[in-house]
Write a structure and sequence with these properties.
Layout lengths: L4 H27 L2 H27 L3 H30 L6 H20 L5 E5 L2 E5 L4 H28 L3 H30 L5 H27 L12
Antiparallel strand pairs: 1-2
Helix pairs in contact: 1-2, 1-7, 2-3, 3-4, 3-5, 4-5, 5-6, 6-7
């Protein structure tokens, strides 16, 4: 077993995302809305992926083949999560269009990217930056570019919906909630683009992707902590309950 910064960041990210998934589960139990159910699936898949991938890296950090398998799994499960958000985006923004089209488009793009990831040769390695051990994924730019496209297509409409809520709401709590989630999603998108594309395209330090993911997880944790205290003082103002569909 090798303790790497990459594994620690992913395990912390899975912990925070599991908290978020639990909040969506609570919201779904109370509201039974499509949005809360799909957001539960979206966050839950990401949380479980990071959890198992973090442990995978702990035990196989020195095995290049198994690290590549980790990348393949990541492309597939991240694409599946984004396909769910594509379904939700069409369901809310364009109700006249069958939302399954959005799901299928991203799912097919994700399956194609997964197949390409299997075929393209690359070799992730364990590296040491200063005194910190990290994983250099050596992911080809084409794979990272396709992953970035998937994230951009799905995350931008999701972030826009929270920004819209911030702009139209007259209630301070809801405005703060909308702005907070908007910033969380943008930070998550930033972490994804750095990890998937910019790190290899610009030849950034191997730690850059881990730092971006760590900052996203920390910010999300602070947002969840803030709204947990708010929920105690105002039972009617839950972070995830106010959804209309």
């Amino acid at each position: 077993m090798v303790l790497t910064f990459t594994a620690l960041v992913e395990l912390f990210g899975s912990f925070v995302l599991l908290i978020l998934a639990y909040r969506f589960y609570q919201a779904y139990k109370e509201t039974k809305t499509v949005s809360s159910r799909l957001l539960l699936y979206f966050v839950g898949i990401f949380a479980l992926y990071f959890f198992f991938d973090g442990f995978w890296i702990l035990f196989f950090a020195e095995n290049s083949f198994l690290l590549k398998l980790s990348v393949v799994n990541g492309v597939f499960f991240q694409s599946l999560s984004c396909a769910i958000i594509a379904f939700l985006g069409l369901y809310f923004l364009f109700p006249q269009i069958n939302p399954s089209i959005g799901f299928l488009f991203i799912a097919i793009l994700g399956i194609g990217t997964t197949a390409l990831t299997i075929r393209v040769p690359f070799a992730p390695t364990l590296e040491t930056v200063g005194v910190i051990k990290t994983i250099y994924w050596d992911e080809p730019s084409i794979i990272g570019f396709l992953q970035s496209i998937i994230f951009l297509i799905t995350f931008i409409p999701l972030s826009a919906s929270f920004l819209f809520q911030y702009q139209i709401s007259k209630i301070t709590f809801l405005r703060i909630r909308g702005l907070g989630m908007f910033l969380v999603i943008l930070l998550g998108l930033n972490a994804g683009v750095i990890n998937f594309f910019l790190k290899s395209f610009l030849k950034l330090n191997p730690l850059s992707g881990d730092i971006a993911l760590g900052l996203f997880s920390l910010f999300l944790f602070l947002v969840l902590l803030y709204f947990s205290f708010q929920s105690e003082s105002s039972k009617n103002n839950n972070l995830f309950k106010n959804v209309s569909k």
